[in-house]
């Protein structure tokens, strides 16, 4: 009667598996085990052969005196294990090796001379061996085939793992770390870059080429570093001895989505973004991908190539149309071009290719080369006001990634992995030198706006380049049995060098002019008014393109010591040294730290049915990506402005751009601008996280497991980037001797007052219910507290596109205020109390070869917090005050604290509403002819169309705050908190898609993915 | 277990205590997680969020064949939805000298124990159970918002602005009935549906009661 009993259990290949904490390789797995006779005697000298579609050739190892064998550096995949020993019959067994997993197979051999020689494989309580030391979740490409996700990308997959949430700017947070504290690795090397806001490396892989993704919440092993959050490690497919591939088309359209409920307020205003068709034109969104892999030389050279194609996009852009009544700034008639108000078409297109080639020198030694190339072009781009089509420019974004890796097995006890990779992002945009009129001239009109003529803004001459190069090697030695047990020793190093090169000139020539008018005949009106802002001038970009770099060198040692079948101890030590140089070669920082790692594992029965584990680890984060931008001239060119020599009301173009027209002398000096906007304390340290963790795990022989984990992380050495009085520095004019100009910069420094603490309890499980059903998932209860979230609306303490830094202003300290008053401790943004992902998968393989899959995914998204305590920093006001007061910067700075708006109260006291939803995916995979198959996947997000109030607008009004007089908050300003609408209208609750005051989520949407596999 | 230290032996014996009993079918242990809707006046207390979820550790003490006593200890989360109690109008009318935007979130967490009588009813796969559940519930009420002080004149002039940021909590204990039915679909896994009474009080309200219906998935160790 029981529907679920007595079914075969064969679903492991599709599971999302928690790697029981164990040692891992970056891009491979291992099979370990023993071969013994049926009466328990070890069988030494048996030959163990491992074959797999993922492996070039056959890997052969021999059992040692204890009957043990180990096959490291195996590409992830399905393996057949064949053992031969003269006089014995040994069964063939199968093993599914996941990325970074150590899979165990214990095998019994039968005496061939026995009258009834039967053979068997011992059922291991866990597929994953306890010598794997990390806490991680493995997500295979087959699992992503079944599970409903928006994309198959790294961040979407990572969110399925416990302890992973969405943080600032939609980026990934792992175990409470800053979103910039993670590493996203592709084939073993970094692809993330927060400055270009591609923190998940999305530009470097085609979804269908991803073979496996490993989400490491806590790697523990000393091999892993340069992170203070977690690691998302992905490998791409390698091809095989058979030609395989996928041709996929993804479709979605706005009209397939449910409409948001309309608000109930009478004063409904603008149309909400989630209101059905009106969120945009009802276009059919299409994406096509192709992935093909196979042999070039069987068992020697394999290839895998993939590409993605989105139909080119078009959009309309309209040039400015100031109107005929707008004149030159002095009231004279201006030039009116026929292009005013005219529309032009922008065309966007993207090319995306990815390839990987694997060369097997022998079954024990292989070389892997990978390359990604992505180019995106967009025509007719426009920056600022213009009615001159000559100011259009074309933009080109390129992403290139090359990697070269070596894996070698030497004898039975030694392995070596080495890898080099280089990634480069290039943005080429702006004007060109080869224009007939290549000097950009900005004309000031009577409507108080500047309009650009002749050439585009910025420069395409020196593209902006960001590059990252990685070198890494790891040597592993497996000791024979000693009196203390067996050791797995790892030593290695890693070097990560990142750089940015750019001049970011405002024009292709490095020169631009500001003039008072352009006459109907095209001549220019240039006046010597001497006003620093708004006056006619020539501006010269004076710093050339140069590269700023940062370097991280790491060395490690790690020993995993198996004392006996019950106890295992791992200890490691890692050394990380970081340094950076600015564009003129000056060393800006130098930080070094040691990070110890210790873990104890207890296996009470020696069979891995129960594992108890505890660890202590320090994770040293990498230096912020901003170190290649904030303290350098790269992207911050020094610019100097000079007056015209005399007034002229009809300068021709040639005369206007003639340097002799301008007074480039002390008398004509008008202003200086640009240059680094921040100063870094040379003693700054890399942030680090100390983690304590304990776990208990129950394993079953069918691959099911249930694991409980608790962890605590405490970070230290965060940056603080607020102004410190006296941090201004002086420019000396690069053209005219004797001129010095003050520049104000924020100082980045390590501030011990910035706190961030994370505590969590996780449950993760996989239940193989039958050969067709599985139920898995996880739940995380977590708190994230601290006092350094920063992230105010002014952006002054947000490091470009990185996480918020500390926001403590020295002025409060200087005024004797308690840190708990201006930077109270509480729930940080990103504090997500509850988070769960549960899935029910059903897979039915028919006798005709068809496969039907369905998956229902439940997502519980705990709400994050909002805070009435934050700082809003008026950096521009301080700068203006300093400029106005000449050298009295410190006094102005101290006086300016009254211009800070502070919302006081406990940090993160408010919390939005929790939400949950169900996603459904139905898949059909049918054989057509030969190996050709047709597949179709229908994904319905929010299948029950369960609309829920999630957040509400929190708008503060900065301008009407009144200073407080009560100590210790004296001098702070508060401002009203309103629930929606604009800053000028308290309590404006208008808006569609709102009911009462809330914003809704949870509307149903549909995506169809279909194509062919072979 | 080829080599075993004394410490290993001691720890193993401690851990074995429960499992050994389990092997004799004296006791069984399970982990159970689930959730479901909440209704009644207590639903209003939590801002109409209307659901709960949580997990329990379960100990099953067999009595005679097909009969057992079940003890559980577990945690429940009772999320709340934000409610806007008042808001400052877009245009401040003359007269009042104080305006307020006040938002309230009321949410609960509960730790509870239960004792149930379980009886198998059909082919050993289905069972029904009933008993009592006691819970200690902490309800937290968080208010956020802004208070404006004004002159009362026409047009209004703002004279002061104060942030509302307060958190209050209250603990209460409740005992309620719990009944349910379950299905063992393998020896390891079972599915349960339980109805249970629950009650709680918040800082702003007296005790409210209601009923929750929880669907749970249990994994036997």
Question: Overview of this structure, please?
Answer:
The complex is a heterodimer of chains A (1014) and B (221). Chain A has 1014 residues and is mainly beta. Chain A has seven helices and 64 strands. In chain A, the strands form 13 sheets. Chain A has a 22-stranded antiparallel beta barrel. In chain A, helix 6 (875-884) packs across helix 7 (889-895). Chain A starts with 16 loop residues before the first strand and ends with a strand. With 221 residues, chain B is mostly beta strands. Chain B has helices spanning 6-23, 41-45, and strands spanning 28-40, 51-62, 67-78, 83-86, 98-122, 126-150, 158-184, 189-200, 208-220. An eight-stranded antiparallel β-barrel of chain B has the order 1-2-3-5-6-7-8-9. In chain B, strand 6 (126-150) and strand 7 (158-184) form a beta hairpin. The longest helix of chain B is centred in the N-terminal third of the chain and has 18 residues, at 6-23. Chain B is rod-shaped, with a radius of gyration of 25 Å. Chain B starts with 5 loop residues before the first helix and ends with a strand. The model of chain B is unreliable at 11-24 (pLDDT under 50). At the A-B interface, strand 48, strand 56 and strand 61 of A face helix 1, strand 5, strand 6 and strand 7 of B.
What's the SSE blueprint?
The complex is a heterodimer of chains A (1014) and B (221).
Chain A: E1 17-19, E2 29-37, E3 47-51, E4 59-62, E5 68-74, E6 77-84, E7 88-89, E8 93-97, E9 102-111, E10 120-122, E11 135-140, H1 141-146, H2 154-158, E12 164-166, E13 172-174, E14 183-186, E15 189-190, E16 210-218, E17 231-236, E18 244-253, E19 284-297, E20 301-309, E21 313-318, E22 343-362, E23 365-381, E24 393-410, E25 414-428, E26 440-444, E27 450-453, E28 464-478, E29 486-502, E30 511-515, E31 517-518, E32 524-526, E33 537-541, E34 546-562, E35 567-581, E36 587-602, E37 610-620, E38 639-642, E39 648-651, H3 653-656, E40 669-673, E41 678-680, E42 688-699, E43 705-716, E44 719-720, E45 729-732, E46 740-743, E47 746-750, E48 756-768, E49 773-786, H4 810-814, H5 819-822, E50 826-827, E51 834-845, E52 851-861, E53 865-866, E54 870-872, H6 875-884, H7 889-895, E55 901-903, E56 910-911, E57 915-929, E58 932-941, E59 948-951, E60 955-956, E61 977-978, E62 994-995, E63 998-1001, E64 1005-1013
Parallel strand pairs in A: 2-9, 14-17, 26-30, 41-47
Antiparallel strand pairs in A: 1-11, 2-5, 3-4, 3-6, 6-8, 7-9, 9-10, 11-16, 12-13, 14-15, 16-17, 18-19, 18-64, 19-20, 20-22, 21-22, 22-23, 23-24, 24-25, 25-28, 26-27, 28-29, 29-34, 30-33, 31-32, 32-39, 33-38, 34-35, 35-36, 36-37, 37-42, 38-40, 42-43, 43-48, 44-47, 45-46, 48-49, 49-50, 49-51, 51-52, ...
Chain B: H1 6-23, E1 28-40, H2 41-45, E2 51-62, E3 67-78, E4 83-86, E5 98-122, E6 126-150, E7 158-184, E8 189-200, E9 208-220
Antiparallel strand pairs in B: 1-2, 1-9, 2-3, 3-5, 4-5, 5-6, 6-7, 7-8, 8-9
């Amino acid at each position: 009667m029981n529907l679920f009993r007595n079914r075969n259990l064969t679903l492991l290949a599709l599971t999302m598996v928690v790697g029981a904490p164990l040692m891992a390789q970056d891009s491979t797995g291992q099979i370990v085990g023993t071969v013994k006779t049926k009466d328990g005697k070890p069988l030494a000298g048996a030959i163990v052969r491992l074959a797999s579609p993922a492996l070039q050739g056959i890997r052969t190892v021999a059992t040692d005196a204890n009957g043990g064998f180990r096959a490291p550096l195996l590409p992830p995949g399905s393996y057949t294990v064949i053992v031969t020993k003269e006089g014995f019959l040994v069964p063939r067994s199968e093993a599914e090796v996941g990325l970074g997993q150590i899979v165990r197979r214990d095998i019994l051999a039968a005496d061939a001379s026995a009258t009834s020689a039967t053979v068997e494989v011992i059922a291991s309580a866990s597929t994953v061996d306890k010598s794997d030391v990390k806490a991680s979740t493995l997500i295979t490409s087959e699992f992503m085939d079944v599970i409903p996700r928006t994309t198959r990308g790294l961040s979407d997959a990572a969110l399925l793992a416990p302890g992973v949430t969405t943080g600032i700017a939609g980026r990934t947070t792992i175990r409470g770390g800053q979103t910039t504290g993670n590493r996203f690795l592709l084939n073993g090397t970094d692809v993330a870059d927060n400055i270009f806001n591609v923190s998940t490396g999305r530009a470097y892989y085609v979804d269908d080429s991803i073979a496996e993704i490993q989400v490491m919440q806590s790697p523990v092993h000393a091999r892993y570093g340069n992170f203070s959050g977690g690691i998302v490690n992905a490998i791409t497919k390698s091809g095989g001895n058979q030609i395989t591939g996928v041709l996929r088309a993804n479709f979605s359209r706005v009209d397939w989505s449910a409409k948001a409920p309309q608000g109930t307020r009478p004063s409904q205003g603008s149309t909400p973004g989630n209101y059905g068709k009106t969120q945009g034109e009802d276009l059919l969104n299409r994406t096509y991908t192709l992935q093909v892999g196979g042999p070039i030389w069987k068992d020697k050279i394999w290839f895998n190539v993939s590409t993605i194609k989105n139909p080119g996009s078009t959009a309309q852009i309209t040039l400015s149309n100031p109107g005929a009544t707008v004149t030159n700034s002095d009231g004279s008639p201006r030039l009116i071009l026929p292009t005013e108000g005219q529309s032009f078409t922008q065309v966007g297109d993207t090319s995306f290719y990815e390839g990987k080639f694997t060369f097997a020198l022998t079954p024990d030694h292989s070389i892997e080369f990978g390359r990604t190339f992505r180019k995106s072009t967009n025509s007719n781009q426009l920056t600022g006001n213009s009615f001159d089509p000559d100011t259009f420019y074309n933009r080109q974004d390129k992403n290139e990634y090359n990697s070269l890796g070596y894996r070698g097995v030497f004898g039975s006890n030694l392995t070596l992995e080495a890898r080099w990779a280089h990634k480069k992002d290039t943005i080429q945009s702006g004007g060109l030198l080869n224009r007939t009129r290549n000097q950009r001239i900005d004309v000031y009109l009577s409507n108080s706006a500047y309009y650009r003529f002749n050439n585009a803004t910025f420069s395409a001459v020196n593209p902006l380049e960001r590059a990252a190069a990685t070198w890494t090697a790891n040597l592993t030695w497996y000791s024979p049995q000693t009196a203390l047990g067996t050791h797995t020793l790892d030593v290695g190093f890693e070097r990560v060098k990142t750089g940015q090169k750019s001049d970011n000139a405002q024009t292709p020539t490095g020169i631009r002019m500001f003039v008072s008018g352009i006459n109907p005949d095209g001549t220019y009106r240039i006046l010597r008014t001497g006003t620093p802002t708004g006056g006619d001038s020539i501006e010269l970009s004076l710093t050339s393109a140069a590269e700023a770099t940062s370097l991280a060198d790491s060395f490690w040692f790690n020993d995993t010591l198996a004392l006996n079948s019950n106890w295992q101890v791992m200890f490691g030590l890692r050394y990380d040294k970081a340094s950076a140089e600015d564009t003129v070669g000056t060393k800006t920082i130098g930080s070094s730290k040691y990070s110890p790692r210790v873990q104890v594992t207890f296996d009470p029965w020696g069979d891995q049915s129960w594992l108890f584990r505890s660890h202590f680890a320090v994770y040293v984060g990498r230096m912020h990506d901003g170190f290649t931008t904030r303290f350098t001239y790269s992207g911050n060119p020094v610019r100097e402005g000079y007056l015209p020599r005399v007034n002229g009301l009809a300068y021709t173009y040639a005369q206007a751009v003639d340097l002799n027209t301008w007074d480039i002398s002390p008398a004509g000096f008008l202003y200086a601008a640009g240059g680094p906007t921040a100063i870094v304390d040379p003693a700054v340290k890399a942030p680090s996280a100390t983690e304590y963790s304990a776990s208990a795990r129950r394993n079953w022989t069918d691959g099911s497991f249930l694991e409980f984990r608790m962890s605590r992380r405490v970070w230290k050495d965060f940056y603080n980037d607020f102004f410190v009085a006296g941090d201004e520095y002086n420019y000396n004019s690069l053209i005219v001797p004797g001129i010095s100009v003050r520049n104000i910069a924020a100082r980045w420094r390590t501030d011990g007052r910035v706190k961030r603490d994370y505590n969590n309890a996780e449950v993760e499980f996989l239940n193989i219910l039958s050969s067709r059903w599985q139920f898995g998932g996880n739940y995380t209860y977590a708190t994230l507290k601290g006092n350094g979230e920063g992230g105010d609306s002014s952006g002054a303490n947000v490091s470009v596109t990185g996480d918020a830094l500390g926001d403590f202003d020295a002025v409060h300290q200087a005024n004797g205020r308690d840190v708990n008053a201006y930077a109270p401790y509480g729930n940080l943004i990103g504090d997500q109390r509850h988070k769960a992902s549960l899935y029910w998968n059903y897979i039915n393989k028919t006798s005709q070869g068809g496969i039907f899959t369905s998956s229902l995914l439940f997502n519980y998204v705990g709400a994050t917090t909002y805070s009435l305590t934050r700082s809003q920093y008026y950096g521009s006001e301080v700068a203006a005050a300093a400029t106005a007061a000449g050298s009295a910067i410190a006094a102005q700075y101290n006086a300016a604290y009254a211009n800070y708006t502070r919302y006081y109260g406990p940090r993160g006291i408010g919390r939005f509403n929790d939400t949950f939803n169900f996603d459904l995916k139905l898949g059909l995979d049918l054989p057509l002819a030969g190996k050709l198959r047709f597949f179709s996947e229908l994904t319905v997000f929010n299948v029950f169309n369960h609309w829920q109030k999630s957040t509400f607008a929190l708008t503060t009004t900065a301008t009407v705050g009144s200073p407080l007089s009560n100590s210790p908050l004296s001098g702070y300003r508060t401002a009203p908190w309103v629930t929606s609408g604009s800053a000028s209208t308290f309590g404006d609750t208008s808006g569609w898609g709102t009911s009462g005051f809330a914003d809704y989520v949870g509307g149903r949407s549909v995506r169809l993915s279909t194509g062919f596999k072979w | 277990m080829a080599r075993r230290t004394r410490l290993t032996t001691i720890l193993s014996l401690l851990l074995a205590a429960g499992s050994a009993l389990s092997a004799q079918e004296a006791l069984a242990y399970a982990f159970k997680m689930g959730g479901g809707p909440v209704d009644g006046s207590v639903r209003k207390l939590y801002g109409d969020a209307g659901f709960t979820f949580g997990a329990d550790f379960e100990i099953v003490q067999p009595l005679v064949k097909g009969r057992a006593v079940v003890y559980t200890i577990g945690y429940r989360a009772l999320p709340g939805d934000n409610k806007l109690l008042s808001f400052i109008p877009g245009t401040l009318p003359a007269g009042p000298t104080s305006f307020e935007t006040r938002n309230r979130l009321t949410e609960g967490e509960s730790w509870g124990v239960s004792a149930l009588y379980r009886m198998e009813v059909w082919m050993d796969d289905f069972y029904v159970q009933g008993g009592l559940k006691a819970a200690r519930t902490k309800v937290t009420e968080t208010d956020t918002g802004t208070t404006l002080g004004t002159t009362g004149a026409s047009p209004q002039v703002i004279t002061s602005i104060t942030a509302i940021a307060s958190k209050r909590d209250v603990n209460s204990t409740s005992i309620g009935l719990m009944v349910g039915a379950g299905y063992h679909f393998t020896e390891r896994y079972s599915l349960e549906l339980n109805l249970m009474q629950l009650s709680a009080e918040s800082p702003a309200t007296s005790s409210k009661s209601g009923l929750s219906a929880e669907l749970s998935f249990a994994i036997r160790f």
